[in-house]
Design brief:
UDP N-Acetylglucosamine Acyltransferase, domain 1, 1 helix, about 5% helix, globular
Length: about 200
C-alpha cells in the first residue's frame, strides 16, 4: 500500500503540459514529463521543452539568479524533443543554453552559461559580477554521469562526453570528449570510422 501510494503521489506531482505548473513555462511540448519531486525550478517563462522529453527527479531548471526577475523577451533555456535528463542534474541559464533533440544525460550533470570571475584580486570572488557565455549542445549527444558543461561550450551533433568531464570550448560533430579539463579523444570520419584525433604529430 505504501508503494502504491508513493507511486500515485509521484504521478500526481509530475509536471506536464496539462498540470497547473506546466502553464508557467513558455512551452512544454506534448508528452513532456518533469518527475516528482522536482529540483529548484524558476524562470519558467524563459524555458522551452520539446515534445516527449523526460526530466528526472530532483532536476533543477532555472533562468536567472532569482525568481521573478525580468530577463527580457527571448527564450533563454531551450531543451529539444525526445531528450532525457538524468536525475539530480542542474540546468542553469542566464543568457542562452540550447540543447538539441535526442540528447541524453546521465544523473548529476551540470550545465551552465555563467561562471564567477576573479579579475580583481582584492574583491571576494563571490562578490564579483559573473560572466555569461552561451552554451550549445548538439542533437543526438550523450553526457555521462557527473559531466560539467561550462560557459562558452559548443558541442556538435552526436557527441559523447565522458562521465566526470569538465568541458569548455568548441568540439565538432562526432567527438568523444573526456578529462579534466576535457579534450577530444576520438572523432569519426567515413574513411577511418572512430579514431583518435589526427594531428601533425601523427605523420612522420
Amino acid at each position: 500500500m505504501i508503494h502504491r501510494t508513493y507511486a500515485a503521489i509521484r504521478h500526481a506531482g509530475a509536471i506536464s503540459p496539462e498540470s497547473p505548473a506546466g502553464y508557467r513555462f513558455r512551452r512544454l511540448g506534448d508528452g513532456v514529463s518533469i518527475a516528482f519531486p522536482p529540483g529548484a525550478i524558476f524562470g519558467e517563462q524563459w524555458i522551452e521543452i520539446g515534445d516527449h522529453t523526460l526530466i528526472g527527479e530532483r532536476v533543477s531548471i532555472s533562468c536567472g539568479m532569482v525568481p521573478d526577475r525580468d530577463l527580457g523577451p527571448d527564450t533563454i533555456l531551450r531543451i529539444g524533443a525526445s531528450c532525457s535528463i538524468g536525475r539530480g542534474s542542474h540546468l542553469v541559464a542566464h543568457q542562452s543554453v540550447e540543447i538539441g533533440d535526442d540528447v541524453f544525460t546521465g544523473p548529476y550533470v551540470y550545465i551552465t552559461d555563467q561562471n564567477h570571475v576573479y579579475d580583481d584580486p582584492d574583491i571576494p570572488i563571490g562578490r564579483q559580477w559573473p560572466r555569461n557565455s552561451p552554451v550549445s549542445i548538439g542533437s543526438g549527444s550523450w553526457l555521462g554521469t557527473g559531466a560539467i558543461i561550462l560557459p562558452g561550450t559548443t558541442l556538435g551533433r552526436h557527441c559523447v562526453v565522458a562521465g566526470g568531464a569538465v568541458v569548455r570550448g568548441e568540439f565538432p560533430d562526432h567527438s568523444v570528449v573526456a578529462g579534466v579539463p576535457a579534450r577530444r579523444v576520438r572523432g569519426y570520419t567515413p574513411e577511418l570510422g572512430w579514431h583518435a584525433p589526427i594531428t601533425l604529430d601523427t605523420f612522420p
